[in-house]
């Protein structure tokens, strides 16, 4: 059993902007499956955050809530161990966001490098939604409402956690006793999986994903279209493994890393073709995704069961988050009426 000194509370989440992909799997989902056996873990479906850049397309978000749930269950997140909950059904998160917005300057939100990059990538310019600019504040509310101290995420989330901790310290300094708990990222060994197009990050918004629900054919096509070393023209040529997406994926997904090391050595020496490397990668992705796809089909066929899981998890999360909100309000001297 874990004693209180080495116990942690885990919170992570995903925007329901589309089915989850291999980047989520290696960046966060894989860790969650291990962590749920050791610690209390909450997984938040961040539908409100999904709306911050999909305000005119709410159906996209609502339709994907159950897709994301089916992905969770298919990879092995167990609702008996992990509390799965829905952001929009937890009013304490919105209220904490309102309280935190008053202690974060506009200059600070504009400086967040992930948000800056996303604003440029989405081409918002003057049409930037206010909600999008402040989503890191809402994310701070999500993490702190659960008093989570460990957050398994990809490296794009590091600026969010830094900003969360600033809010924690500022808010705690305003309260007679500290209420909020600082958090730390738990980065996986693959904290940023590139897209199948070689772009720096696999991301739903960039359309360069291989989803956990991809068909056998999708997997095969994606692997065979992958970017390799453009100078590796003949099989006999020495090839480069750095920046070669096929090798990045072999590093991330192949169960036998000694075999990957041997493949790399052979590729660099010359005499190993791209086609053979891709066949090796395809075989390991098919083996990984085929059981996930099957389980996913079973789970998504029973929407009522998914709804029950979400309802139960959200009820539990409601209690925890209301408690934190009450503590913050009391500390600020605001009457707590409910
Ligand atoms: P969107 O494009 O809508 O923002 P996304 O693909 O970036 O979607 P999110 O829901 O924003 O996915 O991310 C959920 C979690 O998965 C975060 O912890 C994020 O760091 C992690 N993650 C997403 N993409 C990757 C990736 N390519 N490599 C590693 N981790 C990732
Ligand atoms: Mg994202």
Describe this structure in words.
It holds the Pfam family tRNA-synt_1b. This is Tryptophan--tRNA ligase. Keywords: Aminoacyl-tRNA synthetase, ATP-binding, Ligase, Nucleotide-binding, Protein biosynthesis. It is an enzyme of class 6 (ligase). One of its GO terms (cellular component) is cytosol. The protein contains 14 helices and 5 strands. By secondary structure, it is mostly helical. It folds into 2 domains: 8-192 and 301-330, Rossmann fold, CATH 3.40.50; 212-294, Tyrosyl-Transfer RNA Synthetase. It has a 3-stranded parallel beta sheet. A two-stranded parallel ribbon has the order 4-5. Strand 1, helix 1 and strand 2 form a beta-alpha-beta unit. Helix 3 (58-75) packs across helix 13, helix 4 (91-101) packs across helix 8 (135-145) and helix 8 crosses helix 9. The protein starts with 9 loop residues before the first strand and ends in a 6-residue tail after the last helix. The structure holds adenosine-5'-triphosphate and magnesium ion. Residues 14-15, 17, 23-24, 27-28, 153-154, 156-157, 191-193, 201-205 line the site of adenosine-5'-triphosphate.
């Amino acid at each position: 059993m874990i004693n209180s000194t080495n116990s942690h509370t885990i919170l992570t989440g995903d925007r329901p902007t589309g089915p989850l992909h291999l980047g989520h799997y290696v960046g966060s989902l894989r860790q969650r499956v291990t962590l749920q056996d050791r610690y209390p873990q909450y997984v938040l479906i961040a539908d409100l955050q999904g709306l911050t850049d999909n305000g005119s397309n709410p159906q996209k978000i609502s339709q994907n809530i159950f897709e994301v749930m089916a992905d969770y269950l298919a990879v092995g997140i167990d609702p008996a161990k992990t509390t799965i909950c829905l952001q929009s059904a937890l009013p304490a998160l919105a209220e904490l966001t309102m309280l935190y917005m008053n202690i974060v300057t506009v200059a600070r939100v504009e400086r967040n490098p992930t948000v800056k990059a996303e604003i440029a990538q989405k081409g918002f310019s003057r049409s930037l939604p206010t909600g999008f600019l402040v989503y890191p504040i809402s994310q701070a509310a999500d993490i702190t409402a659960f008093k989570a101290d460990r957050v398994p995420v990809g490296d794009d989330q590091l600026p969010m956690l830094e900003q969360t901790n600033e809010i924690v310290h500022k808010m705690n300094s305003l309260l007679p006793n500290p209420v909020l708990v600082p958090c730390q990222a738990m980065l996986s060994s693959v904290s940023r999986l590139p897209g199948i197009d070689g772009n720096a990050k696999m991301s739903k918004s960039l359309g360069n994903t291989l989803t956990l629900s991809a068909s056998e054919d999708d997997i095969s096509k994606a692997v065979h279209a992958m970017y390799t070393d453009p100078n590796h023209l003949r099989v006999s040529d020495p090839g480069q493994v750095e920046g070669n997406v096929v090798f990045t994926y072999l590093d991330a997904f192949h169960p036998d890393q000694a075999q990957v090391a041997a493949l790399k050595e052979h590729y660099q020496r010359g005499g190993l073709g791209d086609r053979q490397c891709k066949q090796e990668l395809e075989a390991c992705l098919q083996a990984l995704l085929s059981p996930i796809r099957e389980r996913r089909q079973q789970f998504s066929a029973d929407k009522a069961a998914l709804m029950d899981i979400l309802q139960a998890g959200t009820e539990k999360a409601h209690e925890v988050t209301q408690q934190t909100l009450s503590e913050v309000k009391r500390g600020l001297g605001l009457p707590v009426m409910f």
